[in-house]
Amino acid sequence: MADISIEEFKTQAEAFLAANAPRKEAEQKFVWGQGSDKVAMFEEKDKADEAADLQRACDWRAKKFDAGYGWISGPKEFGGSELPNAYQRSFDSLEGQFQTPNQSYFTIGLGMVAPTIAVHASQTAKDLYLKKMYRADIVGCQLFSEPGAGSDLASLQTKAERDGDVWVITGQKVWTSGAHYSDIGEIIARTDPHLPKHKGLTGFIVDMRDPAVEIRPLRQMTGGASFNEVFFNELRVPDDHRLGDLNNGWNVALTTLMNERAAIGAGGGGGGGLYTRIIEMTRHFGLSDDPVTRQMLANLLIHNKVSGYNNQRAMDKIKAGALPGPEMSMAKLAGTMNMKRLGDFVSHVLGAKMVADSGEWGTYAWSQLILGTPGGRIAGGSDEVMRNIVGERVLGLPKDAGIDSKSPFNELKVGTQTN
Ligand SMILES: Cc1cc2nc3c(=O)[nH]c(=O)nc-3n(C[C@H](O)[C@H](O)[C@H](O)COP(=O)(O)OP(=O)(O)OC[C@H]3O[C@@H](n4cnc5c(N)ncnc54)[C@H](O)[C@@H]3O)c2cc1C
What we know:
By secondary structure, the protein is an alpha+beta fold. The chain has two domains: 46-55 and 69-88 and 98-260, Beta Barrel (Butyryl-CoA Dehydrogenase, subunit A, domain 2), CATH 2.40.110; 266-381, no CATH class. It has eleven helices and eight strands. It has helices at 6-20, 47-66, 85-95, 107-120, 123-134, 249-265, 274-284, 291-319, 326-350, 366-378, 383-394; strands spanning 140-143, 159-163, 166-177, 184-190, 201-207, 213-218, 227-238, 242-243. The strands form two sheets. The protein has a four-stranded mixed beta sheet with strand order 1-4-5-8. A four-stranded antiparallel beta sheet has the order 2-3-7-6, with no helix packed on it. A hairpin with an 8-residue loop joins strand 6 (213-218) and strand 7 (227-238). The longest helix is centred in the C-terminal third of the chain and has 29 residues, at 291-319. The mean pLDDT is 91. The protein binds flavin-adenine dinucleotide. The site of flavin-adenine dinucleotide (FAD) has 24 residues, from strand 1, strand 3, helix 10 and helix 11. Flavin-adenine dinucleotide is lined by residues 108, 141-145, 150-152, 175-177, 227, 375, 378-379, 381-382, 384-385, 388, 400, 418-419.
């Protein structure tokens, strides 16, 4: 039982926030043509701005951690406060009332990598990394996808070979978000090619600053470079940095992926304040009485509402202590389909103004969102893969026929497998 009541906790947390961050001003009514018209899906910062932004984010996390709010539900052993989840939710909701630095740099590290370390790492690795991650002394990334293994992750070919007490990792990962500012990464590598493809994999924690790790940025069609390809040139990793048992990497990966879908699902039905913008946009361009436009808009808003409720249902299940399940795949799919609908609607209203920069407020700016949306439809499991999961695990349809989970990996014709 917590030795502080939730009311007392909230009073103290609010006092801490008030002393360290400005309170948000009352929400101002959105007026078309006023303020920023930025609606991008991905932050597109240059390296200097990104480094300064990251430093502000780390400073804020460290301040919270030192005051006891960095890992409210976490074990005291790693600097947590060991309070029930409800206390964390109360803090998050209070924090939302204050202007605090962008915390998206920690979505992967704290939303996916740290929970995996907490479940699967050795005591040495937990002691080394958990506290530092929650205090933002270090940042973590996820090294799963490879050029030939994305949806079909179990086909990955990066290998880890044992050499006494260390593992030697060789291979290439791709699409690694934030690798360029991360200190550690969670990698899944093949440790036994003679076993079926899901069975010969093992997870490790790697040092992203080691000279044997080469990080090259990838330019996106939005113009930014928030993810990378990462090459491992015989990186040496101590055995106490292994995650879970040898050849049990598929279960380690599943722990991370379940948390990934929960983290993405927690983002909601897709859109938030964007909907106010598109309603005002419709009025501004004189289409609010056009029956086709009205029909499209109503359809969009209904889908967003339904997706929001479904998402809330899935998150409530997790908050009640259940593991993230196939509902998260439904929530992810619904969210990204709504982003696609939103893009179609904006294209319908703006037409050529969205693709040619005329300088007019609130028009060309939408192209950043439209160009970013496909990224959301692929990251964390593509729409098609989400549909497979919903078909198999929710509707009980037969399993995807393309998978061979019995033959040894080294006897498979790589590139012909599907997940
Ligand atoms: C913004 C963004 C951030 C990312 N960040 C990371 C990261 O930090 N770390 C990381 O490891 N990875 C990351 N990824 C990679 C991401 O996980 C993969 O892109 C994703 O799993 C898809 O894999 P792929 O790109 O290899 O496409 P493929 O798997 O080659 O898929 C190509 C197409 O085939 C379809 N397809 C594939 N299999 C099936 C099937 N069985 N049934 C029906 N259709 C199928 C897909 O839906 C897709 O349309 C990121 C991706 C994006 C876009």
